[in-house]
Structure formats: C-alpha cells, structure tokens
Known about the structure:
Blueprint: H1 2-20, H2 26-29, H3 32-43, H4 53-57, E1 60-72, E2 75-82, H5 83-97, E3 100-111, E4 114-124, E5 133-143, E6 148-157
Parallel strand pairs: 1-6
Antiparallel strand pairs: 1-2, 3-4, 4-5, 5-6
Amino acid sequence: MAGMKQVIVLVLLCVSAWAQGKAARPEDVATIDGVIKAYYEVVSGPAGQPRDWDRDRTLYIPGVKFVAMSVKDGKPVAEVMTHEEYIARSNDGLVKSGFDEKEIHREVRRFGNIAHVWSTYESRRTPQGPVIARGINSLELYWDGARWWVASAVWDGERKANPIPKDYLPAQ
C-alpha cells in the first residue's frame, strides 16, 4: 500500500508540472507560507525588471479565475479574468514603473485539505517608497497530497469609503 501511495504522489506531481507547463519550486508550494511568499514576489520588482510569470503560473490550478473588485458610479464592479488576462493587464505597468507589494497581515482558516487566506497588503513603487495602495487579497487554496494550489484570487483595494478594518492590520 505504501508503494502505491508513492506512485500516486509521483503521478500527481507529474500531472501538476505538465498542467502548468513548468515544475513548481518546491519551496513555493510545500506550505501556505511558501505560496503566499511566491504570490507577492512574482509581482514585485524594480522598474525595468521582467516578472517571472512562468513561476507565477505554477502556483495556480488550470483555469484559475482572478477577480479584481472596484467601485464605479457608486456600485461594486467585479473584473473577472484568467491568469493570462491578468498578466496582459498588469505586466507593462509593473515593469515600467516598478512595483513592490508586501503582505502586512494574514489570517488563515483551514479545514482538511482546503484553506482560505485573507492577506492584507501594502503596495509601493520601490521597497522604501511611499505606500501607494493597500487592500486585501482573498485566496482559496487546496492541498492535493503533494503541494498547495491557488484555486482563486479575489482582491479589493482600500478606499476612503472602504478602509481596512483594524482586525486586518498589523497589531500596533
């Protein structure tokens, strides 16, 4: 029986690598901490530095949906996109202007092989620059027996009418 479990894990790893086109870095997907660290590292970098979208692709299930929330004319708007649409929408601006996004607070709720990560972030153009945005990323993850996968990512930015509650900020 133990041999069969090892074969199943090996098959899952091979299918995971094939589905994503590139094998994930073990440190990126072995733990929830690793996934969240990679999630922020990929979008962050100085002006002129290409982002490692191949690395990013290894974090997500095939067909992952991203949802960017905003408000237009006083009404909530959800912009639903694929990973490739997200790259097309954001890459040029990230590379042209530089972007540094860091997690400043996290809450995780886990049950069995699923986890919900509520990750508060701050964005800057450079690591020591002024904060240009804050918000919360809501990530749904699952464990397949060998690694963590991001199944969806939804985020909303802080606004005057939508301040981040103190419970989702670092303790002061």
